[in-house]
Automatic annotation (TrEMBL):
Species name: Physocladia obscura
Region feature Disordered, mapped onto this chain: 1-53
Ranges annotated as biased composition (Polar residues): 35-53
InterPro entries hit by this protein: vWFA_dom_sf (IPR036465)
Protein name: VWFA domain-containing protein
Native organism taxonomy: Eukaryota, Fungi, Fungi incertae sedis, Chytridiomycota, Chytridiomycota incertae sedis
Length: 502
């Protein structure tokens, strides 16, 4: 039982994860790795000659390995314990098995240090839920480490060491793109502007096929009735193989999926850009000829439901969402599961469940929304005999559990995004499709889009899209649905069918 398992480490905001072992003596062992590597190179000569110095180095190594073995056994238990299996599944999910094994063998001091900091196991539920544990470092630490917080530091360690099919996903070490300094703000503005310039006019034939008189920007007195430039979307061929394999499994009945929505409802969603928007990171106030983001999102969700609800009622899946609609979680300063949305009562539900929700407005804290998604989804899965909750590591999937295809809609970079990226990297039961909506040619929007593109590049469970300004809604809806549904997504004729118009 869970109660009989080995107790996991406790987290301290100042000292990291508190494990057994001589953490106070770690400093005096900083040279052990180099000593071991040097002694390996010269072992044939020195051991044969009875070198006491080399024997001393090897005794240090044996002592260090003994500490590692004892610490792992104490906190993870034997190989048949639930905690040990959770940790090993985490290694597999993050594609970092080879790195930990190599590090443990060749650099035991480094491995033991990272072990004591909790890097070798999933983040705890307490750490995920407590925003103070992922808060921004002091300026002096940011300049020293190059990271905004512990979550970002740990995320980039994983990204720089994970391998897929034995090939490092980051051949050259990568670093965060922006920090809190005037130079970096300038750099983010420059990058965002450069990306904005990559946008291309949408082909007139595409506009003819997908344009709708009900697109959100046409409902306001805009100066221009033209659609904004479309940002090129690069296909990640490695990532593409994953939903293709999943589609085959769904087709033959060995795999199933569930659908949920996670939507940003923070204060920035309701800002009217026609009255002026204070831009970041350049600090320029812009008056923009486009609707509020919340109006665009409302339109997009209504269009999405036209296709999602019928598909979910047709799934031969006892765990699929019923005709009552698609489950939705909203987040801002707080997060809430608002129930199922459908097309029949959409206007009422949007007004009563979304706009009037207690969490509407405030700061975008995506980790709170993500935790509600996990709780809602796993509680449903438990009624079907899948999944369980571990007291330290939180919700855990079990073999045969349906995968969650989660559509996330954002209008900027939420708080605790690094912890979210880190948590998402650990999970193998969820496919995430992220849509970023934003202001036309805004450097802030495009610098955030660059971050998301980086996320999808290094996490094969994630797909990202972004739209700006005057949006060709049925085109982006088609792209989103192709990502959300690995198998049998809506066809072009369904997308443009007048019966599915809003």
């Amino acid at each position: 039982s869970v109660a009989d398992e080995v107790a996991p480490p406790r987290y301290s905001p100042t000292h990291g994860f508190e494990f057994a072992g001589d953490t106070k003596d770690l400093k005096k062992h900083t040279d052990v790795d180099n000593e071991f590597n040097n002694s390996q190179e010269n072992s044939n000569d020195k051991i044969g000659s009875g070198s006491g110095q080399t024997r001393n180095k090897f005794s240090k190594l044996v002592d260090f390995n003994a500490k590692i073995n004892a610490a792992e056994l104490k906190h993870w238990g034997p190989s048949d314990s639930r905690v040990y299996k959770i940790v090993m599944q985490y290694w597999i999910n993050t594609h970092i098995v080879d790195h930990w094994l190599d590090l443990r063998e060749s650099k035991p001091a480094t491995y033991f240090k990272l072990f004591n900091q909790g890097y070798c196991e999933p983040i705890s539920e307490a750490w995920a839920n407590n925003r103070t544990l992922g808060e921004t470092y002091a300026d002096i630490l940011i300049m020293k480490t190059g990271f905004l917080n512990l979550g970002e530091e740990r995320l980039y360690y994983l990204l720089n060491h994970l391998k897929i099919d034995g090939i490092p996903i980051c051949p050259d070490p990568i670093r965060p793109l922006k920090f809190n300094s005037s130079f970096i703000r300038y750099d983010a503005t420059k990058r965002g502007t450069q990306r904005a310039n990559l946008g291309k006019p949408i082909d007139s034939e595409i506009i003819r096929l997908y344009a709708s008189p009900h697109d959100a920007f046409l409902s306001i007195p805009t100066k221009s009735r033209e659609y904004s430039h479309w940002m090129p979307h690069k296909v990640n061929e490695t990532r593409k193989q994953m939903p293709e394999a999943l589609a085959e499994d769904i087709k033959n009945g060995s795999e199933r999926i569930e659908i949920m929505l996670l939507v940003d409802m923070s204060s920035s969603m309701t800002v009217n850009p026609q009255n002026g928007v204070f831009g970041r990171p350049d600090g320029i106030r812009r008056v923009l000829d486009q609707p509020c983001n919340i109006d665009l999102v409302k339109n997009l969700i209504r269009r999405l439901l036209k296709h999602m609800v019928p598909r979910n009622t047709q799934l031969d899946n006892p765990g699929a969402a019923s005709c009552a609609g698609i489950p939705k979680v909203t987040f801002a300063t707080h997060a809430e599961f608002i129930g199922n949305l459908n097309t029949k009562s959409f206007d009422y539900d949007w007004s009563e469940k979304v706009v009037q929700a207690k969490n509407f407005g405030g700061i975008a804290r995506i980790m709170r929304g993500w935790q509600v998604v996990k709780k809602t989804y796993f509680e449903k899965m438990q009624t079907l005999g899948h999944g369980y909750h571990h007291p330290h590591y939180g919700w855990q999937a079990t073999p045969g559990m349906p995968k969650l295809s989660l559509l996330i809609i954002l209008d900027g970079e939420p708080n605790n995004i690094c912890k979210f990226k880190l948590d998402l990297l650990e999970e193998n039961w969820v496919l995430a499709t992220i849509l970023l909506v934003g202001y036309e040619n805004c450097p802030y929007h495009h610098s955030n889009a660059i971050e998301l593109e980086r996320m999808r590049k290094y996490n094969l469970n994630v797909e990202c899209y972004d739209v700006q300004g005057h949006v060709l809604e049925r085109l982006i809806v088609e792209n989103l649905l192709n990502s959300v549904y690995p198998y049998n997504p809506p066809t072009f004729s369904e997308i443009v069918d007048p019966a599915n118009e809003i």
